[in-house]
Amino acid sequence: MVLVEEENKKMIEALIRQGKLKDRKVAEAMLKTPRVYFVWKGYEDLAYEDQPLPLGDTGQTISAPHMVAIMLEQLEVKKGHTVLEVGTGSGYNAACLSYLVGEEGKVVSIEINRILHEFAKNNLSKLGIRNVELILGNGTLGYPERLEQEIYDRIIVTAAADEIPGYLVTQLRQEGIMVLPLGKGFTQLLTKLKKKDRGIETKEICEVIFVPLRNG
Length: 216
Ligand code: SAH
Known about the structure:
By secondary structure, this protein is an alpha/beta fold.
């Protein structure tokens, strides 16, 4: 365990040196979340390399740590927030979010693949994380599905969307922030969206590579 903490710390320090991780709270969240708990069996030795890793034969991956850092920084999560994540995958990002929202906050994370939903459930329970609700379903419809109410302070999508899913905009609160990779191609643009009373403001952050969001 001590060794794992040391390796995690080294990885985070490297991300800070490289200028990929600037936010102290995000760094803390990643320090408290040992990535080795979230990699697929057999990949433990690579858990603290800054690269995405395959999640069994599901065709999905756990994102690279620098990508998690960039997205979480852009999301500007505060203690007490209610956050929706689309694409639970391994549960790593959800676990980092759990730390950022704190005990008074809540994370809802939706995954469409049953195997990964179960995998994440197991990973989060090993760390005793309680403020994350894991849902099996299609996240493009929001949660609860198709609800037309502004219930989330923040929304993060960890698979690439062709266009901004309408239900997610509907479920985002005024002044809320959504971060998502947007585009149809092999690479997409990580986009930060802010909901204002007169519509939405978007800002492009950087080019990224994500697997496409499934539509059902
Ligand atoms: N955040 C994850 C990595 C996500 S990989 C982590 O920390 O490990 C993207 C995930 O999105 C995959 O697990 C994929 O199955 C899921 N996904 C794709 N389309 C989806 C949809 N419509 N609703 C919910 N999950 C979806």
